[in-house]
Amino acid sequence: MLEGYRIEGRRAAEIAASVERAVGAGELAPGQLLPPMRELALELGVNPNTVAAAYRTLRERGVIETAGRRGSRVRSKPATTGREYIRVAVPAGVRDVANGNPDPALLPPLTPAFAAAAERADRAPVLYGEATVDPELARLARAALDVDGVPAGPLALACGSLDVIERVLAAHLKPGDTVAVEDPGWGSLLDLIPALGLRTAPVGVDDEGPRADDVRRALESGARALIVTDRAQNPTGASVTAARARALRSVLQEHPETLLIEDDHGHGIVDLPLHPLAGVTRHWAFVRSVAKAYGPDLRLAVLTGDETTVDRVHGRHRLGPGWVSHITQRAVAHLWSTGVLDTAKVATEYRTRRDRLIEALAARGVEAHGRTGLNVWIPVPDETGAVARLLHAGWAVAPGARFRMSAPQGIRVTVAALTGEETVRLADAVAAAVGPAPSPGYV
């Protein structure tokens, strides 16, 4: 059954480690069927309950999945084979438009902000036991949230959007629970959920955000949480419209116990208004990071939500990292308060680059999407072939497999630093590689 690999161990932890080690080394492939528990127990000379405990540990870690009488098998995307590895190696001389990064030329200078924060730290160092959130940062963050209509709630901080989302999920859910997620969606999130021992329920996406009917089906089928990207959805660039927000709120009102998580990582690079869903359900979290507008290495995201959720996240954070560096917090507050970044100008520039590529592709009969953000999503009939042909033509694009569960195939192009002349050449290459879109829509 295992084609030569022998699971070892006498204790549950040893058996689980043996399986996970084999998955990580590629000796057990995704989809590989594992031995029935009683059969493996007999082979190892242990109690079946020991094997059952090992399999339970592997399920909770997102390494395997169990389907009743059909047995247990290695997950098609276990936590040890992250989607970040489904990427194209970029040879010398090939233009990388797959990385998802902001344009460094549009990021603000950090030296003055950190110098001001460090000078303040020299005068009054932050010591153990002090408030974890800098008051000025909290004031500025809350003011911006108020402008965007995000309901009032306490604030907490963590190291980026994914860090916040992980902590919120862990605060409310248990292994085996299901999370409704966008499909196509953020590859790192699609890896994180099974790594927490949770299941995913795919929700289709169009240019206006998650489809309300798909959300309703997922929640009616038992999903306990819903994660929505409000703007600059990765990879499609979708942005939740006012009409879609009303439809989604209506669905959530039917399921008030749903844990709602909203990700607004596009804040500062998007010129479309926010239409938050928060406040409809009992437990909710709204996260806003600074990575795209101010720089990924700042590693700071603001969380607000209901008191229970924020308190749980804050308390657990205090037991681990403790707090986000106050020097970083004060540097971000300095960036916000001085207005060193013209966010409207940045948003306009990114929109120009997206529209330029989408229009060039349309002129060549190729469908593409990207209302907001740094990327353009291009539906294709064969993404493996398209990626290979584009690489041969000198362009490295992101394979859609990094972002998909059951959604149709596609490729993602990062336009953040794409020049006008490059846009024309890239559009020609894409048209040659994929041809006209096979059908309208991408979900």
Describe it:
By secondary structure, the protein is an alpha/beta fold. 40% of the residues lie in helices and 14% in strands. The strands form four sheets. It has an eight-stranded mixed sheet with strand order 4-11-10-9-8-5-6-7, with helices on both faces. The chain has a three-stranded antiparallel sheet with strand order 12-15-14, with helices on one face. Helix 1 crosses helix 3. The longest helix has 21 residues. The model has no long low-confidence stretch (mean pLDDT 93).
Topology:
Layout: H1 12-25, H2 37-44, H3 48-60, E1 64-66, E2 72-74, E3 95-96, H4 111-123, H5 135-147, E4 155-158, H6 161-172, E5 178-183, H7 187-195, E6 199-206, E7 209-210, H8 212-220, E8 225-229, H9 242-253, E9 259-263, E10 283-289, H10 291-294, E11 301-305, H11 307-319, H12 326-338, H13 343-363, E12 375-379, H14 383-392, E13 395-396, E14 398-399, E15 410-414, H15 420-434
Parallel strand pairs: 3-13, 5-6, 5-8, 8-9, 9-10
Antiparallel strand pairs: 1-2, 4-11, 6-7, 10-11, 12-15, 14-15
Apparent shape: globular
Counted beta strands: 15
**Mean pLDDT reading:** 93
What class do helices, strands and sheet pairing give?
A: alpha/beta
β content, as a range? 5-15%
Task: Count the DSSP helices.
Answer: 15
Low-confidence stretches: none
H-E order: HHHEEEHHEHEHEEHEHEEHEHHHEHEEEH
Order of neighbouring strands in the sheet with most strands: 4-11-10-9-8-5-6-7
Backbone CA Rg? 23 Å
Q: What gap, in angstroms, lies between the N and C termini?
A: 37 Å
Can I get a quick summary?
The protein has helices at about 10-25, 35-45, 50-60, 110-125, 135-145, 160-170, 185-195, 210-220, 240-255, 290-295, 305-320, 325-340, 345-365, 385-390, 420-435, and strands at about 65, 70-75, 95, 155-160, 180-185, 200-205, 210, 225-230, 260-265, 285-290, 300-305, 375-380, 395, 400, 410-415. It has about 450 residues and is of the alpha/beta class.
